[in-house]
Backbone:
């Protein structure tokens, strides 16, 4: 398929872009002192080489109040020379580069500011994001922020950046001025809509005066705050018209605030879900508009341009996952694209807590500076046992480095537990990683022997230079207090694999991430699926009240038994909440601080310790009992071989049960070392 729209040039106030693909600002948190260090540079050089038209780096702080200590900076002139070198190198790689000037307002944490400084905001309104209450800025502080913002824009121009972007989205400072729930001021900067727009409009005017009429200025805005009582897409459209009139040359549209209860980026969000927000703004302005959030497929991106919902597409986490996404799309190598799976584990889950960016599917993300000159000392003939994430990842990376690789896989398909990871609601993107592995194994001529059960003797006699054991994990069996040998207890993996269809009344023993994902999977199967919902809604076959009742309930009665005080253990910070909210919506019951004391042929009996310390005995009827108690490594083969062969390695869950991101990174590092 030819993607002619994606690869059409566009001009933005004199800035000529070679295509319609933009990497929006990502808080990489690679910098330690505000300068672009080697880690930062090589990360972005790789993306520029990958064919993207425009890279926006940032957020970039410009004062002592607006951002964290490990963010990049343009707060004074000393930063200009090194940024100039950076922008020149991006240009040599045939890409344009802008910088996002960032002020978090009440979204910055006190611990991230210099001693004695306190977060500044339009009003002293408590933030659910930081769990702090900021200081209401006075007029002098407000004017100082505008002055510093404009000064940083001029420095950006002097440093060779092709444009500046003003951050006005996601609940940061400008959003706080615009919103009636965070702007409670009684002066000329608060109250009416006109007054709430005053600060950003004065800011745009100051930036325009600083950089001149022919230098592009962008603004990133929230298409809808998705906060009760705050601004909607209609307000965003009105604001977009105001900033266009004030001199903004391009509007970059994202979704809602960080505080919203509406998911913005995880797999629960359908691809390009928030493009309608950009479309509403594009229809009301005469300047280019970028659509963002969950655009990871070239065909989806092309469709957005064909529908004229936007003029450019934002590929943030998409280009973390695969820096060559744009070149692969241009060359029609769609199956070789390593798509972002919307897990948030390596990116947002880390940066929200002050850690540098990584990526579940790309073990090299953030490590590019370490990999520039890696070459194997000797090309080897390698054998990999297991074609799960660790085995496939290792085989591909080792093959890229020139080694000859063979995989023995005991099943009839590759991917291992990726097939199970893709089953729960919001996790279907994991299937794209299997597609990527299939394409890349074929590209690098990795020999795969399916239905090949590896024995100790076969491996010893195989003649390979090194053997890599990537045999994964298996369910952890535990003893349960059953009263009869006829009671059947199934494992969570059997349910996710579709080997068993549980009954109406389900008890899940184990409330970690896997137990919760099984609960979500089964609850959804007892509720309306998307096709049924569309059918009922489009034909108005039932009342809205009836449809909502069906949508927000499940025909399954599901109970989770968890010994800890909360369910969801095992989810990365900030990742599991959409699923946990979802199972609560569908009526899944969670019995925390509970242990199973008896399982008879009709019910599971538990003892639950209440908050007051009292123990309550509860009887839960069941048709199906599911055990989700965790996993243990399948390392028997390694244990047999490690003292009999000189070059045997073990990676992934076979080494230590963890997450897919752990397996991918471990596989990559071994491939680089071997």
Residues:
């Amino acid at each position: 398929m030819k993607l002619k729209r994606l690869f059409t040039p566009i001009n933005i106030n004199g800035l000529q872009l070679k295509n319609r693909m933009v990497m929006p600002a990502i808080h990489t948190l690679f910098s330690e002192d505000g300068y672009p260090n080697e880690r930062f540079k090589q990360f972005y050089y790789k993306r520029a080489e990958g064919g993207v038209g425009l890279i926006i780096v940032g957020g970039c702080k410009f004062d002592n109040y607006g951002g964290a200590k490990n963010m990049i900076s343009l707060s004074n002139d000393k930063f200009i020379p090194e940024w100039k070198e950076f922008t020149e190198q991006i240009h040599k790689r045939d890409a344009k580069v802008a910088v996002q000037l960032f002020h978090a307002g009440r979204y910055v944490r006190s611990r991230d500011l210099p001693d004695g400084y306190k977060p500044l905001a339009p009003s002293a309104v408590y933030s659910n994001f930081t769990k702090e209450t900021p200081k209401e800025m006075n007029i002098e502080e407000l004017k100082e922020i505008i002055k510093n913002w404009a000064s940083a824009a001029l420095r950006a121009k002097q440093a060779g950046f092709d444009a500046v972007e003003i951050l006005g989205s996601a609940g940061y400072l400008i959003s706080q001025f615009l919103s009636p729930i965070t702007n409670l001021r009684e002066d000329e900067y608060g109250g009416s809509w006109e007054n709430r727009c005053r600060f950003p409009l004065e800011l745009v005017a100051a930036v325009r005066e600083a950089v001149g009429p022919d230098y592009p200025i962008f603004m990133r805005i929230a298409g809808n705050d998705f906060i009760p009582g705050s601004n909607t897409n209609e307000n965003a459209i009105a604001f977009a018209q105001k900033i266009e009139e004030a001199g903004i040359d391009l509007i970059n549209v994202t979704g809602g605030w960080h505080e919203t209860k509406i998911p913005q980026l995880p797999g629960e969000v359908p691809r390009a879900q928030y493009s309608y927000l950009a479309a509403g703004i594009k229809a009301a302005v005469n300047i280019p508009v970028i659509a963002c959030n969950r655009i990871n497929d070239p065909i989806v991106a092309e469709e957005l341009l064909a529908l004229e919902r936007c003029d450019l597409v934002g590929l943030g986490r998409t280009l973390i996952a695969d820096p060559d996404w744009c070149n692969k799309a241009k060359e029609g190598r769609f199956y070789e694209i390593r798509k972002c799976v919307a897990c948030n584990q390596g990116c947002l889950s880390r940066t929200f807590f002050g850690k540098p960016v990584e990526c579940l599917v790309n073990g090299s993300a953030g490590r590019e500076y370490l990999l520039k000159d890696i070459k194997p000392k000797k090309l080897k003939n390698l054998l990999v046992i297991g074609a799960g994430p660790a085995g496939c990842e290792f085989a591909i990376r080792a093959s890229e480095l020139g080694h000859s690789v063979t995989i023995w896989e005991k099943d009839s398909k590759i991917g291992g537990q990726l097939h199970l990871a893709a089953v729960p609601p919001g996790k279907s993107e994991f299937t794209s990683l299997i597609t990527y592995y299939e394409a890349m194994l074929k590209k690098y001529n990795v020999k795969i022997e399916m239905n090949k059960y590896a024995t100790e003797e076969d491996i010893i006699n195989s003649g390979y230079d090194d053997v890599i054991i990537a045999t994964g994990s298996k369910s952890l069996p535990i003893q349960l207090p059953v009263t009869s040998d006829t009671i059947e207890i199934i494992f969570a993996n059997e349910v996710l694999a579709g080997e068993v269809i549980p009954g109406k009344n389900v008890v899940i023993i184990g409330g970690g991430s896997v137990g919760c994902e099984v609960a979500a999977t089964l609850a959804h199967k007892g509720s309306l699926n998307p096709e049924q919902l569309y059918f009922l809604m489009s034909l108005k076959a039932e009342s809205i009240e009836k449809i909502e009742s069906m949508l927000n309930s499940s025909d399954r009665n599901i109970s989770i038994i968890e010994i800890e005080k909360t369910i969801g253990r095992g989810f990365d910070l900030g990742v599991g909440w959409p699923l946990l909210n979802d199972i609560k919506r569908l009526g899944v019951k969670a019995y925390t601080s509970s242990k199973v004391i008896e399982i008879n042929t009709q019910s599971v009996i538990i003892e639950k310790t209440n908050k007051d310390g009292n123990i309550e005995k509860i009887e839960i009827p069941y048709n199906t009992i599911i055990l989700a108690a965790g996993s243990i490594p399948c390392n028997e083969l390694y244990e047999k071989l490690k003292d009999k062969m000189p070059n045997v390695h073990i990676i992934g869950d076979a080494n230590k049960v963890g997450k897919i991101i752990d397996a991918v990174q471990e596989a990559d590092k071994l491939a680089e070392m071997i």
Q: What stands out?
A: The chain has a mean pLDDT of 96. The chain has 23 helices and 28 strands. The two ends are 39 Å apart (CA to CA). The first strand starts at residue 10 and ends at 12.
